Amino acid sequence: MAVASGPVANGAEPTLIPTVVVDDLHVVYRVYGAGGDKGTAATALMRVIKRQRRPSVREVHAIRGISFVINHGDAVGIIGRNGSGKSTLLQAIAGLLPPEQGCVYTSGQAALLGVNAALLDDLTGERNVVLGCLAMGMTPQETKDRYQSIVDFSGVGNFIDYPMRTYSTGMAQRLRFSIASAKNHEILMIDEALATGDANFRAKSHERIVELRGEAGTVFLVAHNLAEIEASCNRVIWLEKGKIMMQGYDVPAIVDAYLEATGGEPRKRDKPHENEHSATG
Amino acid sequence: MRERARDQGGPGTLTDDLAIPEVDQSALADEPLAELAARYQLRPSAARAGLFAYARQLWARRHFIVGFATARNVAMYTEARLGQLWQVLTPLLNAAVYYLIFGIILDTKRGVPNFLAFLITGIFVFNFTQRAFITTSRVMPDSLPLIRALPFPRGCLPIGYVLIELEQLAMSMIVLTVIVLASGEPLTWYWLLAIPALAFQTVFNVGMGLGLARLGAGADDFSQLLPFLVRTWMYTSGVMFSIQTISSLRHHQTLTYLLQINPAAVYISLVRNAVLQSQRAGWPGSKPYSAANCALYHTGKNAYLEYSAYCHGTVSMSGLWLWGAGWAIVALIVGFVFFWQAETRYGRG
C-alpha cells in the first residue's frame, strides 16, 4: 500500500516522502447537554449523592484506531457517510482536536479550510478579515497587503462593513474561504468548504484550490460530491464509524464500492479515470 | 448507569450495520509508524511547544491579541442605542449605585476622608480584576469554535480578554479622574504612580486569567461558582471600608496584615495612595506614632480624619509596592505554566 506501492499515476516520482503519518489514532470528544437528563435540581442532587456521572455528558468516540501514511504530492479524498468521522479526522490532523490515543505526525502546520471555521459573528466582515489573517500568523503589513484581494475574492461587496451575523450562509462561507485560503499552506485540508456558495464562486474557488494544491505539498479533501473527489484526488480513504473501510490509489473502484454499500447510484464515467485536474462534470 | 456513547457505536445514527473489516495492518510499512515519522522528521501535530518557545509564539501573535481585544470592545455595545457611550456610563452607574448603598444608606463612610473618591477608586480598580477573572474563566468554552477552526497559541484568548478589561479600565480611569478632581483632591505628580500600580495589576490579572481559563475550560461548575468567590473577595478587600483604619480591626494585627496584603487590597491601596492626597496623608505609620493623636482619630470626628497617620501602621507604603510586584510575578509564572501544560487539550471542550 502506501509505502510499498505509491501513487500509480505519478509513477515518475521514485522516492516517496511521507508528509502525514497517522498512527493508531483515537479521538474522543465530550458533548455536554446530550439527552438523558431530566434536568430538575432534585435529580441532579440525587446524582451527586449517589456519585453518578452526569448522564448528559457523553463521550463520543469519533475516530477509533486509524493508521495511514500520506506522501508528498498526494491529494487524498475522504469519503464516508454523515457522522463517520471525516471532519474529526481532519481536525485531529490539524492538531485542533487532541488524540485520545495514538499520534498524528506532520511535516508542518496543517491548515484546515472548513465550513465550521466560525470567526467572530458580532464583528464586521472587515474586522474578521484582519483578525483571521493575524490569527493565521500574518504580520499587520501582510494583512494590509492582502486585505483588498481577500475582499474582492469573497465578492461580499458592501457587506464587508456589516457584522458577520447579518450575512447569508453562502456569503459567510465565501468570506471564510477567502480568508483561510489567503495564505499558502504546506498541508491543506478542505472540509466541504465549497458545499454552499453560488456557481460563480464555486468555479472561482475550485480554481483557487487547484492553485493551492500546486503550492501545497499535500491536500486532503472531504466532499460528498464524489465527482469532485474523482476529479481532484489520486487517493481515497473511506471512513465508516470512525474506522477505515477501504483505502488506496484506485479511486474509482473505492468510490464504486462506497456507492454500492450506501445504496447510491453507480457513477457513470465517460472515459477511464485519470488523475487529471479538469473541472468536474 | 447509562451506557457510554463509545459502547453504542459512535456518533453516527446509522441503522443498517455494515460489517467493518479489520484493516490489514501488514499492508502498512514494516517499521513502526512512529519510527517512520521520526526518520522523516515529522512532528506530532498536537505537540506542545516548550515553555519558552510558547512564550515566543504568544509574542509573535501580539497583533492578533491586541486586534482581538479592540474588536471585542467595539462589538460589545454595537447592539445598544447609546453605543460606545456605555463604556463611560457603565462605570458611572456602578459608582452611583455603590455610593447610594454604602455612602448614604449604610453610611459606612465614618473614619474615611473624602469617602466618595475613596469608594469609587476602590470599585473601579477592583472591577478590573473582577471582570478579568469572570470573563477569562469563560473564555475557553465561549471560544470553542474559534479554537477548533484555527491553530494559534491558545494563551492569546485569556490575555486578549484581560486586555479588553484593561481598555474598559482606561475608560473608568478617565471618569475617575473627573470625579476625584471634582471631589477636591489636588492633581499632583503622585498620580503617575497609578500607572505602575495598574501595570502590576494587569500582569497579576493576566497570570490569574491564564490559570482561570484552564480551570474554566473543563466543567461549567467552576465558572458558575467563581462570581460568588469574587464577590466575597470584594467584601474583604477594603473596597467600601478602609482596612488600615477601620475601628473593628484595631486590635487584630495579624488579620489586618493578611487583609492588607491580599492582592486586590494591595492594588486598590496603591492606586488610592497615588490619586488621593487625603489617603496619603492619613496612611497609618506615615507619621511618628502618637497615642494621643491616634486616640483622637478613633473618636471619629471629622476634624481628626487624617490623624490615622499617627497610629501604628501594619504595611508600609514601600512594603505595599513590594507585595504588588510580588503578586504580579508569582501569578504570571504560576498561571502561565499551569495554562501551558494543558495547551493541546483545549480543543476537546
Q: Gyration radius of chain A, to the nearest Å? A: 21 Å
Principal-axis shape of chain A equals globular
| Topology order of chain A in helix (H) and strand (E) letters | EHEEHEEHHHEHEHEEH
Fraction of residues in β-strands of chain A = 15-25%
In whole angstroms, the N-to-C terminal distance of chain B is: 23 Å
Kindly report the spatial arrangement of strands forming the biggest sheet of chain A.
Answer: 5-6-7-3-8-9
List keywords for this structure.
heterodimer, A: 281 residues, alpha/beta, Rossmann fold, three-stranded antiparallel sheet, 9 strands, globular, disordered N terminus, disordered C terminus, B: 349 residues, mainly alpha, 1% strand
Would you write up a description of this structure?
Chain A is an alpha/beta fold and 281 residues long. Chain A has one domain: 3-Layer(aba) Sandwich (Rossmann fold), CATH 3.40.50.300. Chain A has helices spanning 41-49, 86-93, 125-135, 140-154, 169-180, 199-215, 226-232, 251-262, and strands spanning 18-31, 58-71, 75-80, 101-106, 110-114, 187-191, 218-222, 235-240, 243-248. In chain A, the strands form two sheets. Chain A has a six-stranded mixed β-sheet with strand order 5-6-7-3-8-9, sandwiched between helices. In chain A, strands 2-1-4 form a three-stranded antiparallel β-sheet, covered by helices on one side. Chain B is an all-alpha fold and 349 residues long. Chain B has one domain. Chain B has 14 helices and one strand; from the N terminus they run αβααααααααααααα. Chain B is elongated. The two termini of chain B are 23 Å apart. Residues 1-27 of chain B have low confidence and may be disordered. Chains A and B meet through β1, β2, α2, β4 and β5 of A and α1, β1, α3 and α6 of B.
